[in-house]
Amino acid sequence: MPGSVRLGSHNRRLASEAMRLLSVTEAVVTRVDLADYPLPIYDGDFEIESGVPQNAQLLAQRIAAQDALLIVSPEYNASIPPLLKNAIDWASRVRKVNERPVQPFKGLVVGLASASPGRFGGQRGLEAVRVVLRALGADVMTQQCLLPLAGEGFDENGRLTDDVARSSLESLCDKLLDTARSLSRHG
């Protein structure tokens, strides 16, 4: 799930690389694109008056159906981009899916990755994402993938040219699959 909907986003490219790696495994891979779930800015008064928006319910349902989630997020001012934080906030408000109680993030295995034009590769933003997801009960993996200087990190076909980042992403995807298998919420 890329945490950006910007065309040409380095994080969308990194998410595509992860999808390519995961698609050659036995895993059923689904791309969750936040552009498909437009949501108003979270507001408790809005929720009281209008309820949880349908797109938040659909997003929560999609997340709850997964054994694992890879979030590939940019860093905005050393923190979580507002689009991603808003989507997490709304999805966390969903308490039932198909009349069954649900906490979309509870027990979900989550891997984190980031691509950034800066030298730190989005590290600080991922720390903030990690805190939020752990508070919601997700099993956030310690291992992560960072791609610093992301403008130079891909070839013309969108493949990673940075050997360290490629190895890190491959390792993260393998660990995500292994952890999801061992902690499956649906098996």
Strand-helix topology:
Blueprint (H helix, E strand, L loop, with lengths): L9 H14 L20 H7 L3 H11 L3 E5 L9 H11 L3 E2 L2 E2 L7 E7 L7 H13 L3 E9 L15 H20 L5
Parallel strand pairs: 1-4, 4-5
Antiparallel strand pairs: 2-3
Number of helices: 6
CATH fold annotation: Rossmann fold
Largest sheet: 3 strands, parallel
Which architecture name does CATH use? 3-Layer(aba) Sandwich
CA gyration radius, whole angstroms? 16 Å
CATH top level label? Alpha Beta
Order of helices and strands: HHHEHEEEHEH
Structural class assignment: alpha/beta
**Structural domain tally:** 1
User: Helix amount, in percent?
Assistant: 40-55%
Strand order of the largest sheet: 1-4-5
Low-confidence runs: none
Key phrases:
single chain; 187 residues; 5 strands; globular; alpha/beta; 13% strand; Rossmann fold; 3-stranded parallel beta sheet; two-stranded antiparallel ribbon; 6 helices
Please, could you describe this protein's structure?
The protein has helices spanning 10-23, 44-50, 54-64, 82-92, 123-135, 163-182; strands at residues 68-72, 96-97, 100-101, 109-115, 139-147. By secondary structure, the chain is of the alpha/beta class. The strands form 2 sheets. The chain has a 3-stranded parallel β-sheet, with helices on both faces. The protein has a two-stranded antiparallel ribbon with strand order 2-3. It is globular. The mean pLDDT is 93. It holds the Pfam family FMN_red. Residues 3-146 form the NADPH-dependent FMN reductase-like domain. GO terms for molecular function: FMN binding; oxidoreductase activity. This is NAD(P)H-dependent oxidoreductase.
